[in-house]
Amino acid sequence: MFGPPGSRAAGADRQSRRMAWLMVICAGLLETGFAVCLKKSDSFSRILPTVGFALFALGSFGLLTLALRRLEVGPAYAVWTGIGAAGTVIYGMAFLDESVSMLKIIGIALIVAGVAALNLAGGTH
Predict the structure, then answer these.
(1) What's the pLDDT band for 84 if we cut at 50, 70, 90?
(2) Rounded to whole angstroms, what are the CA distances from 69 to 5, 27, 38, 63, 94?
(3) Using 50, 70 and 90 to split pLDDT, how confident is the model at 28?
(4) DSSP 3-state assignment of 54?
(5) Do residues 89 and 99 touch, judged by C-beta distance below 8 A?
(6) How far apart are CA 24 and CA 3, in angstroms?
């Protein structure tokens, strides 16, 4: 599947890595979903949010598992948790009446910057 730069094999490998990163991004968004459903489940006492939690968690871990076939675990995990953490904080501030502060916003920016730095360092194998 690997080949010299510009070859068909190298193009297929690039496409495969892009697809893997897309799966990580989707998995991170699903992580936000499972965190929000966990909050709304009231310690698993409400059935619909509990089912939502389980579905979002299975989807999130499933996509991350598939993506790790093509990506290094460190950068992929950082992106997954970064999207999940930032997404959950943003969702909480926007829809769950959680406090909004400059420190939270700076924290989100630092998460994004850290994830970007890890990706610039490389993230495929």
Answers:
(1) very high
(2) 21, 14, 28, 10, 35
(3) very high
(4) helix
(5) no
(6) 25
